[in-house]
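Q: Structure tokens for this one, please.
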Amino acid sequence: MNSMKNIILIGFMGTGKTSTGKLLANKLGYAFIDMDSKIEAEGKMTIKDIFARYGEKYFRKKEAMLVQQIAEKKNVVVSTGGGTVMNPENMIILQKMGIVVSLTAEIDIILERTGRRGTRPVLDHADVGDRRAAIKNVLAMRAAVYKQADFIVDTSALSPMQVTEEIMRVIKKDVGTHA
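A: Here is the predicted structure, written as tokens:
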């Protein structure tokens, strides 16, 4: 029996990890785990509030614990938080547990998609002119890690459904070559 691997979506906020992850899980008949939502549910507060109350370090610790918990799971699509992969241990675990797909998008698209203030702690302290610079900055810091994915999909001009279809196409090919 050819069992499919878990699929882990990494990438910057606004690249479509959650919307694509839900569709992909649905198509594959997998469970969907949105790491940020899970941390919010467990902490009974938003990530913004977790950052404000306990700081980023505390949040990253929670995130690392969650990565270890989900490492045991099978048949899951995981949407990671944008910064999850900056912890090298997290990245190693994620790479072992499945196929890592990096979603990427042009800065202006990310700016447009993350326009709602108050939900993105990494960007919220920046005003509009600075948001672009903040995105550029954080993207530059994370670029090398995002490139460690098994493959990359640019979502700039694609709907979540098109991104899902692209991932399905690639993993079917991948499963065929590694069987």
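A few notes: Strands lie at 6-11, 31-34, 76-79, 98-104, 151-154. The longest strand covers residues 98-104.
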